[in-house]
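Human:
I keep going back and forth on a fold encoding question. Comparing notes only helps if you start from a blank page. Show me how you would write down a chain together with its backbone fold. Write it directly below this note and I will take it from there.

Assistant:
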Amino acid sequence: LLNHPDQRVRKLAQFELVGRGAKGKAVLLQMAQSKGAPLLSRLHAIWGLGQLGRQGKGDAKALIDLLNDADDEVRANAARVVGDLRLQEAREPLLGLLADKSLRVRSLAVIALGRACKRGDEEATAALYQAAVANAAAFDVVLRHSCLSALDHLETVAGAAAKATSSLVEERLMAVLFLRRHQSPRLTEFLGDADPAIRAEVIRAIYDTKALDTAAGDRLAALDGHGLAETVQRRIVGANYRKGTVRNAKRLVALAADAKLHKSVRQAALHGLRMWEASIDTDPVLGHYRPQVVKGRTMRQLGADLTGPLRRFISRKQDSSLTALATKLAGDCGVALDLATSRKQVVDASLDAELRVATLDSIAQAGQSADDALIMKLLEDKEPLVQAAALRHGFNRDLDGVVELGYEAVKSGPIPAARSAISGLAERDSSILNSLWSSRQKSLRKELWLDAYLALSESKDAKAKAAAASFATQDPFNVFSLSAVGGDLVAGGLVFRNQGACLQCHKIGSEGGVQGPDLSIVAERLKPSELLQSVVNPGAVITEGYGLSSVILKNGSTLVGRVPKQTDSVVQVIAPDGKVTDLKRSEVASITPPVSPMPPLGMTLPPHDLRNLIAFLSSQTADNDDKRVKSDHGKKD
C-alpha cells in the first residue's frame, strides 16, 4: 500500500508501519534500501524512518547511507530527513552533496547542513558560501534562499561582517542578507560596496529592520542616494524623518533641493517636514505597523531651525510643485517669506496654479489688512484654483462683497471656486446651506451635491444635520450616488494606484494584475453610475470569468480561484497568486458560483476620493488606451 495511487492510503500505510514497532521498522528499512522498489514506496519508507528517528527508534546509519543513492529524489528526501533529525554524523556526506548534479538535492542538503552543524562551524560555513558562489553562474533562486537559511544557523555576525572585503559579489551579498536577518548595525560596513545592487540591498536592510534605530540609521540618513532606485531613495528620506533631529530636518531640505533625485522623492522630503510633529503608526515607505512617537518636535521649532535653508530653497529656480510644497511648509512652520516678492508672484499668471495658491496662503497667513484688496482682485483670476483659494481667504477675513461673489461662484463659477464658496457660505449662515440643499434639483449643479451634503453633515446647526441624516436614511446608496460626477481624474488616478490598491487585481494598460477584469477601456461599457455601483457593491454584478469560485475535485481536493474557461472537456482555474491550472472536466465534481474578492470601497474610501476614483475610471476609453499604448512604445524606443 506504500505505492497505492491514493496519497491518503499511502500515508495511512506509512503511519501504520511506524506504529508496528520492530516489524514495521524492518519493512520500512527494506523498502527504503530496495533499489528496485517503486519510488513512492521508497519515499514513504524514508519518511517513516524519520518518524521513528524522532521517537528515538530510528536507524541513522541507514538514512545516511541513502544520501549516496543513485535516485535524485531518494537523496533529496534522505537529506531532508537527516536534517530534520539534526544528525551530526551526517555532516561529511552532506558536505559532499553540495556539489550534487541535482539542484533539488543541493538545496535540501544545504538546509540539512544548517541543521546538522553548530553555529561557528567554519568549514561548513565556508562550504555554504562556496555553494552560493557556484550557484551564481547558473542562478537558481531557491538554492540561494537555501544557502541563506543555512547560514542563518551557522554564520556569526563577525564572520559575515568580515566578508565586506571579499572579492566575490555573491559572498558579499549573502553576508548582507545574513546581517539583515540579524538586524545588525554592522551592515554599515557594506555601505561603500563597489556594487550598486549590494549598496541598495544594504540600504533596504538597514531601513527595513530594527537596525534603523541604531547608529546604522544615522549613516543611512547621511547618504545622497544618487543613482539608486526611487524606492531606495525614499528610504533615505524616511530615515531622516524617523531620526528627527535638526540635522535631519536640514538634510531633508537638502534632499528636496537635489536635482539628481527622483521628483517624487524630493516631494516626499517636503511632505515629511510638513508632518514633522505628527506621531504615526505606519511606516511612510513600507506601509506596515511601525509606530513613531514624536517627542519635542514642533513645527514652531522647525521653523526656527529651517528659516534660512527654507527661504533659500524657495528662491531657487526649480519645479513649481516643489516650490509650492516648500511655500506651504513655510506657512505651516511660521517661516515668514518676503511679502513684496510673494505679492508679485501670486498675480503672475505664467506661474503654476499650485504655486500661486501656496503663495496666497503664505500672504494670508501674514494677516496684513493691506492684502485684502489683493485677495478681492484674485477672486476674478482666470485660474480656478486661485479663485477657490481667494474665496476661502475672503470668507476667513469676512471681506465686503465676498458673500455675493460666493453665491455667484456657486451658481456659475468654476467648480473649485464653487466648492470653496459652499464651505464659506455654510460657515457664515447655515440657512443658506439648507436653502441650497433643498433646491438642489433646480439650482445646484450635480458636481456640487456631494460638497453640499458633506457641509450639511458637518454643520453644527441641528436643522442642517437633520437634513443630511434624512437624505442618508432614505436609501443607503443615496450618499454614494453623490460621488458619480464631479471628480478629479488626475487625483483619481492616484487613488487607483495607492489607497484603492486596484492594481493588485486590475490592469490599466500594461500595469496591474489579472484577478479582476481589465479596466483599460471600462468607460466604453459602463456609465459612471454603473462604475459607482461596481465599486460600492462589487458583488452585485460579476463579470463572466471573474470572481472567486471553489472548484471541488472528485478526489476530494479543492482549488480556489477565478474560472475564465469552462467547456465540456476542460476547466481552467487561475489562483489568486496567478498560477494557472487546467483540469479535465471529468476530474471536477462541482464549481461554486463566483463571489467578488473585491472589498466594497465605498466603505473604506473618503467620499472625495471615491468621487475622484469614479472620474478616473470614467476616463478609461479606447482613445485614451491608444494614447497610452503609443506612449509605452515611445518609452521603449
In short: The chain has a mean pLDDT of 91. Strands lie at 280-282, 289-292, 507-508, 511-512, 549-553, 558-566, 570-574, 580-584, 588-591. The chain is about 60% helix and 5% strand. The longest strand covers residues 558-566.
